[in-house]
């Protein structure tokens, strides 16, 4: 109820929200970070991550491997700005050459599919879909309130749109 109230008030006042239930934005180029120990130098890899817990892990492991980020957006429940909005933004971002996506579920499947297809034509998009098993789908629904979908559906979708599917955080990094 509180999330719905916040969403209503922000829409009424023309304010956009990332989250809730997320860490926010890491953009080294402008000195914005959700923790003080992330590198200050930028790179060409952008990440959108629905899980706050996995966000720190992806940055830490990426940095350990020499990856530097243009943008990293932990977006949680996506009560306003969602995964499709973020991918669409990153498709046009001049600082981003590669887009990594950690997703638990989507708000609008048709739009997500279209945005992925358009983006994969101009930049590589690597997707880790969590919660594809029965237990994972229940966890994703309880965590961010989204429908997770079946593994076969996700395989087909990502193949059709030209995105690269990975199956673990290590493979994503």
Note down, in words, how this protein is organized.
This protein is an alpha/beta fold and 173 residues long. It contains 7 helices and 6 strands; from the N terminus they run αββαβαβαβααβα. A 6-stranded mixed β-sheet has the order 1-3-2-4-5-6, sandwiched between helices. Helix 2 links the parallel strand 2 and strand 3.
Blueprint (SSEs and pairs):
Elements: H1 2-12, E1 24-26, E2 45-49, H2 52-64, E3 69-74, H3 83-91, E4 98-103, H4 109-120, E5 125-129, H5 134-144, H6 151-161, E6 164-166, H7 169-172
Helix pairs in contact: 3-4, 4-6
Annotation keywords:
173 residues, alpha/beta, six-stranded mixed β-sheet, 7 helices, 41% helix, globular
Multimerization status: single chain
Strands, count = 6
Compute the average pLDDT: 90
What is the share of helical residues?
40-55%
Measured by DSSP, the beta-strand proportion falls in 15-25%
Strand neighbour order, sheet with most strands: 1-3-2-4-5-6
The rounded distance between the terminal residues' Cα atoms is 35 Å
Any low-confidence stretches, pLDDT <50, length ≥5? 140-147
Major sheet:
6 strands, mixed
Shape: globular
SSE sequence, one letter per element: HEEHEHEHEHHEH
Discrete helix count: 7
In terms of structural class, how would the helical and strand content be classed?
A: alpha/beta
Instruction: Round the Cα radius of gyration to an integer and report it.
Output: 15 Å
